[in-house]
Write a structure and sequence with these properties.
126 residues, four-stranded antiparallel β-sheet
């Protein structure tokens, strides 16, 4: 059974940084692309960043480019999201997600991801 557990969210001021972590268990972590997906109240889910199995390919939402960095450590079954220069519009619940198919490329489509964590709240005050 796949389990994804996020941590690292919190309340910060605009301009601050946060690092989210997601610990995965169950399944073969290194076989799957992973993503960070966020959802703000009243808005659709948005893939902010995704990473390939080996970490050599990444995908970012336009809103995240230049500020967020996704990375992974396959030895630790963990994926990270470093978020810098946070803005109030980054406020959302951030979910870690695993691609539904092994050996697939990362994508910005939320429906490509089948397993989700419980989410961690990120709140950015102005």
């Amino acid at each position: 059974q796949v389990q994804l557990v996020e941590s690292g969210g919190g309340l910060v001021q605009a301009g601050a940084s946060l690092r989210l972590s997601c610990a995965a268990s169950g399944g073969t972590f290194s076989a799957y692309a992973m993503a960070w997906v966020r959802q703000a109240p009243g808005k659709e889910r948005e893939v902010v960043a995704a990473i390939s199995r080996s970490g050599d390919r990444t995908v970012y939402a336009d809103s995240a480019k230049g500020r967020f960095t996704i990375s992974r450590d396959n030895a630790k079954n963990t994926v990270y999201l470093q978020m810098n220069e946070l803005k109030p519009e980054d406020t959302a619940v951030y979910y870690c997600a695993r691609h539904r198919s092994a050996y697939s490329l990362p994508t910005s489509r939320p429906d490509a991801y089948a397993y989700w964590g419980q989410g961690t709240q990120v709140t950015v005050s102005s």
